[in-house]
């Protein structure tokens, strides 16, 4: 069993948890992820390692409550335990020889981008972080991102934070203003990563995106997580999750992401009615 | 006086039209009378040809004699001397090409039903056996085993009996390897696998799940934790795809993914269990081995109306166990033999709507000695399906090789290991089972685990 030692609510649907998992903490690196399972009937769910503390033997995860499993996890409290927590999985990000980087986070992708920004920043790389949210209420990790960046730009779709627009608008402006980026790291919804990649391709800036297809084992054994990169089939869990954004077939990835939409709805509705039942009882 | 019937005592089974809608075990097993009657068919041959066919040398005539006498407890102990997973082997060994193939009774009529008898004895013990605690003298030496499939479990069990402190590191959340995630419930009930694993744990073996070796710990770090030798039984879990157009459409699964969702994640209980699986009305399974049969029969049980096995050779070349092919046919699986997929066709929004196949004919024998299938020009046609399951083979996962300097492997990924000892190119590191041979059988994996246990013992003793 793996104990939840700390829980924080970052916005109404995004939570942070610090989990006791010494083996994972010992090896974890930016760009890697874990898979958890709450109990014996649970699904195996991948989440990025947002932070780790090797001394304390803990790993931090930040997750959005989108469906049954993430809602169930979100309902747990510090002191509770979950059944399985395996990792670190995936290939760690490689950032050698970089001087100036733009890190882009879209919504929850900000949580996945945060450890990367932090790592680069600590290596002395100049980091411009650009994060976008639908509205002001959804902004997460503002303090943390600011501390991990040379400059932080926050955009909202509706302008409720006084800075209306998309992350790509800001990125484009910064590039046009003459900022020379060695690399752009873009993490967020597939459509955002696609748009960023299309933009940076025009300027010839190497772009890394983090793919999050549906996974089961996370060890290369099912092939469910396959993505097409440069015309070749790759397994995101062992070959990624980071890939060259200019090579990824985003349209295929978006299609594959929707494969279980109707089942997810059933699962979620069942969960909601169970919760309702508990309240009434 | 032996029973001279030419046929095996038949084993009761669920009716095909009932069982193809449930996940309960197909074969129901012998009753005591049936077992004793079948046991009488054994001639107690002095030369024991049958034993030559068993990769772990089960003392076949000896245990069968005990069955004939009704002494099931002793029969169980006899089997357990060499086989730590009898309830599993009795069910899934390809007996027709192993022990039973060499049985003298097979020269005229059917061989003795060695597998069914083994199964009976193991099941009897599960119901009636007293758990015996073996008296083991501890050596205070640690050995690590990677993977908890049949190879790892056997190696661990044997080493534990010799007095070693054995820890199994398993990547998944449940031990058992293919026995848990691959072979379906209706052929190998999972409770039974867990109870056979329990007997290994009772010997003092510790199983640590969620430990992906190569990621969580490397082999070298296992040495740092005080293990004196390591056995790698990590199996052949990497699924192969065909490389034809349309393989990434929604609705195309590797058999591994399809079966893992169903077996390990219990998707057949969705939504009570959280993991879903999509089956559709019409399903094509590509391949002709046990994996393909299991996927097809599972799809049928999950409600698919038409399930096709698409295999590019003929029935004679099919590597599946005879019994499984027979059962699949009874359950209404449609065999498209000498057919090969050429592409998968999708709808505008990216879902499978058909699979184009071409008819094949058998040409000259290839390097495997099997006649090579060649496409008949112009015979292409489209099979209307919404789901395609690819079961054309697996190879070893590259994770351990990639993180273990100096561990030599074949080009296709198999770890190079001595056939007799399992010794690899790294001192103190042994390997066996599918990780070495590529996808093979449960009993060969167990045989390899056994040989490696002996070699590891010798190695550690030689170090003093
Ligand atoms: C490498 C990787 C890293 C990720 N990191 C994070 C993270 O740090 N924080 C975070 O909030 N989310 C992360 N995700 C996404 C997260 O795994 C999904 O949100 C989660 O699985 C949803 O499960 P659910 O049961 O709550 O929702 P469901 O209702 O089951 O699904 C909602 C959506 O989540 C996705 N999803 C469902 N099951 C899986 C699965 N087994 N594997 C992957 N995606 C799935 C699908 O796109 C689906 O539409 C990551 C995904 C991957 C692959
Ligand atoms: C669907 C299906 C049906 C089959 N039917 C039959 C049959 O009827 N009869 C028969 O004899 N054979 C059958 N087989 C083949 C048989 O199951 C295998 O040959 C056998 O299980 C191999 O045993 P193993 O111990 O080498 O590997 P596996 O059973 O594959 O076990 C390997 C274990 O190692 C774990 N592992 C892998 N990598 C790591 C790592 N890095 N760290 C830690 N753990 C790791 C895996 O999770 C797994 O639990 C079937 C196979 C399949 C897939
Ligand atoms: S273990 Fe398998 S091969 Fe050996 S006797 Fe039993 S069924 Fe036959
Ligand atoms: S070969 Fe057949 S008849 Fe002879 S001992 Fe073995 S099982 Fe019995
Ligand atoms: S999640 Fe199964 S291969 Fe990647």
Automatic annotation (TrEMBL), chain A:
Print the keywords alphabetically: 2Fe-2S, FAD, Flavoprotein, Iron, Iron-sulfur, Metal-binding
Cofactor: binding comment = Binds 1 [2Fe-2S] cluster per subunit.
> What CDD domains does this protein map onto?
DHOD_e_trans_like1
**Example of a GO MF term:** 2 iron, 2 sulfur cluster binding
Q: Which residues form the FAD-binding FR-type domain?
A: 1-95
Has keyword Aminoacyl-tRNA synthetase? no
Some GO term, biological process aspect, for this entry: which one?
Answer: pyrimidine nucleotide biosynthetic process
Q: Please tell me where FAD binds in this chain.
A: 62-64
Identify which cofactors the protein needs according to its UniProt entry: [2Fe-2S] cluster; FAD
Q: Which NCBIfam families match?
A: PRK06222.1
Would you tell me the protein name for this molecule? Ferredoxin--NADP+ reductase
From which organism does this entry originate? Answer: Anaerobacterium chartisolvens
UniProtKB/TrEMBL annotation, chain B:
PANTHER family in alphabetical order: GLUTAMATE SYNTHASE [NADPH] SMALL CHAIN, GLUTAMATE SYNTHASE [NADPH] SMALL CHAIN-RELATED
Q: Which InterPro entries match?
A: DPD_II, FAD/NAD-bd_sf, FAD/NAD-binding_dom, Helical_ferredxn, SudA-like
Kindly list the organism's lineage: Bacteria, Bacillati, Bacillota, Clostridia, Eubacteriales
List the source organism: Anaerobacterium chartisolvens
Question: Where is the FAD/NAD(P)-binding domain positioned along the sequence?
Answer: 141-449
Report TM segments: none
Q: This protein is called what?
A: Sulfide dehydrogenase (Flavoprotein) subunit SudA
Q: Which stretches make up the Dihydroprymidine dehydrogenase domain? A: 19-129
Pfam families in alphabetical order:
Fer4_20 (PF14691), Pyr_redox_2 (PF07992)
Q: Name one GO molecular function term.
A: oxidoreductase activity
């Amino acid at each position: 069993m793996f104990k939840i030692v700390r829980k924080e609510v970052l916005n109404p649907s995004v939570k942070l948890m610090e989990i006791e998992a010494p083996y994972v903490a010992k090896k974890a690196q930016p760009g890697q992820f874990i898979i958890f399972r709450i109990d014996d009937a649970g699904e195996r769910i991948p989440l990025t390692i947002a932070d780790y503390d090797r001394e304390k033997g803990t790993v931090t995860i930040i997750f959005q409550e989108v469906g049954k499993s993430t809602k169930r996890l979100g309902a747990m409290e510090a002191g509770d335990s979950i059944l399985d927590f395996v990792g670190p999985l995936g290939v760690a990000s490689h950032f050698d020889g970089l001087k100036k980087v733009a890190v882009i986070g879209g919504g929850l992708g900000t949580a996945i981008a945060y450890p990367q920004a932090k790592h680069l920043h600590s290596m002395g790389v100049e980091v411009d972080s650009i994060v976008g949210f639908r509205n002001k209420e959804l902004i997460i990790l503002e303090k943390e991102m600011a501390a991990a960046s040379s400059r932080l730009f926050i955009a909202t779709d509706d302008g409720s934070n006084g800075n209306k627009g998309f992350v790509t608008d800001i990125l484009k402006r910064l590039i046009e203003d003459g900022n020379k980026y060695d690399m752009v790291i873009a993490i967020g919804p597939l459509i955002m990563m696609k748009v960023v990649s299309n933009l940076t391709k025009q300027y010839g800036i190497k772009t890394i995106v983090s793919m999050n297809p549906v996974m089961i084992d996370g060890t290369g054994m099912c092939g469910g997580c396959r993505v097409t990169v440069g015309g070749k089939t790759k397994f995101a869990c062992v070959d990624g999750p980071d890939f060259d954004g200019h090579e990824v077939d985003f349209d295929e990835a978006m299609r594959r992401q929707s494969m279980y939409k109707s089942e997810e709805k059933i699962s979620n509705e069942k969960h909601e009615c169970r919760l309702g039942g508990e309240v009434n009882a | 006086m032996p029973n001279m019937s030419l046929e095996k005592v038949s084993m009761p089974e669920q009716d095909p039209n009932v069982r193809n809608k449930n996940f309960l075990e197909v074969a129901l097993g012998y009753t005591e009378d049936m077992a004793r009657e079948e046991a009488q068919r054994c001639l107690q041959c002095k030369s024991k040809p049958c034993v030559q066919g068993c990769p772990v040398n089960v003392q076949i005539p000896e245990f069968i004699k005990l069955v004939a006498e009704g002494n099931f407890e002793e029969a169980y102990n006899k089997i357990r001397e060499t086989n730590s997973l009898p309830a599993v082997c009795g069910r899934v060994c390809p007996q027709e090409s192993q022990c039973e193939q060499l049985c003298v009774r097979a020269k005229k009529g059917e061989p003795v039903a060695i597998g069914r008898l083994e199964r009976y004895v193991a099941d009897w013990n599960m119901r009636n056996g007293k758990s015996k605690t073996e008296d083991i003298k501890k050596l205070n030496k640690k050995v690590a085993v990677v993977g908890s499939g049949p190879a790892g479990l056997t190696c661990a069990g044997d080493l534990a009996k010799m007095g070693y402190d054995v820890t199994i590191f398993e990547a998944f959340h449940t031990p058992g390897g293919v026995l848990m995630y691959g072979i379906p419930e209706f052929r190998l009930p999972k409770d039974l696998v867990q109870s056979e694993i329990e007997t290994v744990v009772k010997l003092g073996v510790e199983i640590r799940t969620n430990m992906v070796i190569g990621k969580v710990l490397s082999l070298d770090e296992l040495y740092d934790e005080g293990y004196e030798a390591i056995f790698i039984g990590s199996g052949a879990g990497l699924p192969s795809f065909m490389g034809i157009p349309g393989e990434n459409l929604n609705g195309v699964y590797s058999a591994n993914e399809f079966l893992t969702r169903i077996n390990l994640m219990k998707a057949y209980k969705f939504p009570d269990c959280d993991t879903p699986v999509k089956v559709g009305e019409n399903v094509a399974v590509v391949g002709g081995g046990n994996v393909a049969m299991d996927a097809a029969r599972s799809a049928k049980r999950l409600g698919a109306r038409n399930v096709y096995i698409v295999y590019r050779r003929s029935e004679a070349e099919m590597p599946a166990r005879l019994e499984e092919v027979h059962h699949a046919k009874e359950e209404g699986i449609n065999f498209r033999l000498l057919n090969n997929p050429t592409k998968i066709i999708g709808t505008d929004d990216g879902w499978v709507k058909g699979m184009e196949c071409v008819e094949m004919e058998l040409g000259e024998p290839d390097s495997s000695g099997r006649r090579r299938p060649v496409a008949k020009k112009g015979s292409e046609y489209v099979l209307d399906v919404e789901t395609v399951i690819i079961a054309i083979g697996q190879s070893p996962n590259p994770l351990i090789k990639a993180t273990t300097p100096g561990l030599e492997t074949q080009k296709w990924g198999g770890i190079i290991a001595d056939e007799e000892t399992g010794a690899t190119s790294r001192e103190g590191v042994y390997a066996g089972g599918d990780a070495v041979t590529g996808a093979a059988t449960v009993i060969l994996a167990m045989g390899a685990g056994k040989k490696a246990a002996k070699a590891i013992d010798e190695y550690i003793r030689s170090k003093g």
